[in-house]
UniProtKB/TrEMBL annotation:
Source taxonomy: Bacteria, Pseudomonadati, Pseudomonadota, Alphaproteobacteria, Hyphomicrobiales
Name by which UniProt lists this protein: Uncharacterized protein
Native source species: Mesorhizobium erdmanii
Stretches the record annotates as Disordered: 45-66
């Protein structure tokens, strides 16, 4: 597994990356995200996207995107 990096170093070109983020209940999640429209967006289910404030990232593997 690839080491996590500070979110400030993540690509903002629309690439998909794996990010760690914390929800309003304090639960930490890892999700595939894209930077667009001035923020990081993840899918919470197949139809719903949510803007999140990630703390770290790593490249998304091809397995993550299935």
């Amino acid at each position: 597994m690839t080491d996590r990096k500070p979110i400030s170093t993540a690509p903002t070109d629309g690439s998909k990356v794996s990010v760690m983020w914390k929800n309003s209940d304090g639960v930490v999640s890892e999700s595939i995200a894209q930077y667009r429209d001035g923020g990081w967006w993840v899918y919470t289910d197949s139809d719903t996207q949510k803007k999140v404030e990630p703390t770290s990232w790593r490249p998304a593997s091809s397995d993550d995107e299935d």
